[in-house]
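Model it.
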Amino acid sequence: MKVLLIQPPIEDFYDTSIRTYPLALLYLATKIQALADVSILDFRTGRKPKVLRHHPFPELEPYYREGVSTPLSFFARYYRFGCDYKEMKKEIAAREPDVVAVSSLFTTYSLEALEVARCAKEVNPEIVTVMGGTHPTLFPEHVLKSPCVDYVVRGEGETPFFRLIAALKEGRGAAIGDIDGVCRKTGSDLRISDIHVEDSIDLIPDRRLVNPADYRIGKKNYTFFLTSRGCPFHCAFCGRPPVPYRRRSLASIEQEIRQCLDANIQALDFEDDMLTLDPGYFRQMLKLFHGTGLTLSAMNGIYAGGMDTATLDDMFTAGFRRLNFSLVDLSRSVTERQKRPCGTDFLSLLPFLESSPFLTEVHFIIGLPDQKPEEVINTIIFLMGKRVLLGPSLFYLAPNSAIFSRMVGETWEPNIKSMRSSAMVPADPDFPRKSLYTLVKLVRFVNLVKNVIDQEDGLGTAGDLLNDQRFGRNPHDQEVIRVLLAEKKLVYYDRKHGGFLPEPHDPELLKLFFQQARGIMIRGFKTMNTLTIG
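Modeled.
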């Protein structure tokens, strides 16, 4: 039996190309490789993006435009990241699979995943199609209603998928309805299984099933890596499926590290939901990386609860050089309303982080329900004075989250394409789209200033940015910054017609930011150099 596991393309204004490693598919492939001839086909990674002239967000046209010149650039074009329909059909046909299993991680990209299933059925209607991932786990009925999908794997998929393939191979189709974690249909009758949770998470994915050179951070081959699964918290904005927190055995992690090195991996990104939840276990795990030479990161975000400076020292020794912390918001009242454990542990670590060799990025959310724009500005101003890079995350409705259930409920399907940060969907009347856009632009301004002052010491005030040599940008960029500083407005240079035009923005928010920031220091990201907002 030939089984083809596929990572689908996506369509959006942007893609995070360094976060496309198909780890979940590798787990599935490893589990069944003794049963079937299995291969992985990545329709997303390493393929030139294609500009789509039409997209489902006409309301965003005032914000995302081509021909714009500004040092505070945002999105401009809508792309397809990965294969088009014709290419997908050709690739599937060339492999002649008996089973095609498609990863569907995010609801907002689920239509692209369904395209792959449709391709498979057009290539050969006898191909058995399977969908798995977060979206089918949360909405199995939605997926099974597609005539192109035969089965859904719900929850953690290694064991259910293994049992499904075994049943198909042995011709035991009637028994498939009894497999925990496998959903099926008979005509219009849908049989929905509970969400499956693996008894053991020590399975080591066989990375020989993909080409390590296809997945790179900088000049280094990288991989995703899990030391745990699940999360014990229930943040109101998070749509994580309800699976318990579990840790892997240290012995299995040590074995996987050796296999990564044998597979010519040089960098490793932890994708755990709660990598640092158990500080004692985390420090034991870090010791396994001593002397490996691997560059470590945790782009999914680090929870600072229970961490101390000794843990940070261990992280540096293990191979961490850049840290991504999840703050959510500086305000304790905001985090409490979101049922997020507070960030006081991170704040206590900041003095050490600023004096350390780490490069630190701090992520916070803009536009949460019950959050106020003034609270976001307070977070921006606080972080701009620290030796950190600001990582803004525009709030979006995550299926299965408490906020999603309260605001959308069962009427989510018409909004399927809007469940993404790039859609800038206002979830609160205090955050209309102009305000969201303004706050993101302010963060880009702060990070731009941090980059400039890292390059040269001796800048006194923000007005010094307009010096030709120091600012190092073209005159159009200098005028954009001058208008922002002097007139508290956002403008851009129109390259097609010439001349400066206003950008959509909230003038009151700009005024508030500069009032609150007056006399406040901006510190660099890589250096302790500073500049003061005049």
